[in-house]
Amino acid sequence: MEILLVSYGSMGDVRPLLALGLALRERGAHVRVCAPPDSRPLFTAAGIPFVPLGGNVRQLMDARADRFVGRPLAAMAPMTRTLRQELAIQFRQLPEAVKSADMVIGSGLALAVPSVAEACGVPYRYAFSIPALLPSRDHAPVTVPWQNLPPLCNRVLWRLADGLLDLGYRVILNGYRRGLGLPALDHVMPHLTANLIVAADKELAPLPPEAPSDCRQTGYWHAPRRDPLPAAIEAFLDQGPRPIYIGFGSMGDPTPRQTVSRLRQAVGLAGVRAIVQSGWAGWSFESDANCLCVAGDLPHERLFSRVAGVVHHGGAGTVMAAARAGVPQVIIPHLLDQYYWGQRVVTLGIGPPPLPINRLKTQTLALALRRMLASPGMRARAGILAKPLSRRDGARQAARWIIPHPRATAPFIP
Description:
Layout: E1 2-8, H1 11-26, E2 30-35, H2 40-44, E3 50-52, H3 57-68, H4 76-98, E4 103-108, H5 113-120, E5 124-128, H6 151-179, H7 188-192, E6 196-199, E7 216-218, H8 231-238, E8 244-247, H9 256-270, E9 274-277, E10 291-294, H10 300-304, E11 309-312, H11 316-325, E12 329-331, H12 338-348, H13 362-374, H14 376-391, H15 394-402
Parallel strand pairs: 1-2, 1-4, 2-3, 4-5, 5-6, 6-7, 8-9, 8-11, 9-10, 11-12
Helix pairs in contact: 1-15, 4-5, 4-6, 9-13, 11-14
């Protein structure tokens, strides 16, 4: 049985597919991954065949950081233009990869996959880690930075989002579907949110009450890493009290010097030590006794259990990793679902209110750090939340549902 996993997006979109791919391989499936070329090392290191899809996402984020980051509403137009360009590449590249598969699981912004799978007659499921992608009175669309609105406002915003999605994508999708011999779509949202697998822990991100009855929720798809922490981090951890972690993952930064200055000043005002991961923002500064700057990819599950708190952009993977480690977190949302996760952290009582990157001030960040570290309630609630999350293997849950019987020759399609 061959299962193709497809994603287009940042590492937060792509990395969960590694966990699922390994779990499916345990159950006898032959797994291939089709994803942005800059994610190739992640899968080839695990021996999973890789097919590149589209352009380099890091280069794209770097080039468009000033249009995407910290401008949640204004970013919608440039994001739509970028995705329409990527759609052309996806519809050109995916048919060859999909046609030999017994099942396709898409994620992220691989918006061409459901149409290509339909044209090839291959069963398809869409996997995501963000229940806020589902319309609900309980939350606004992820393109809206205000995630604590009353139900009536949320309903109105979802109607507006539905119309904007049709306006931005229906004509172009129907043009490609016509070329594949498929019928036209009346609405885009039902097409993109059908056949769902939600890779998020119910304690952290429950499904909204309006979720489709066939929507399957597993835990987060977490691939444990065995690589040790760098020696510089181990030495820093041993030199004093537990530091905090600061990192913005796959987010670009149009003003890196300004951001670094604010972060370091806030750390000093709060009287804490910090490990700062440069990430895709490319931050760089000279480390000192209280602030260590590190580059490269880090095993968050090893690091987060040894810090006092996590300050990050609010990507689903980092939220899940901090929650599994049982530490409080401060979210500095940059775009899209990160505002939803910021509100979830507040609702669960495991962190202070989010601080949007476009309004980030040194004093407010320092205050948030003090509040996070001085609250025994936040730490206690984070520890309680971590217990069920750390026991659950969401990727294996999903693999058992897709392949109920090991070594089966076809996936289970309910």
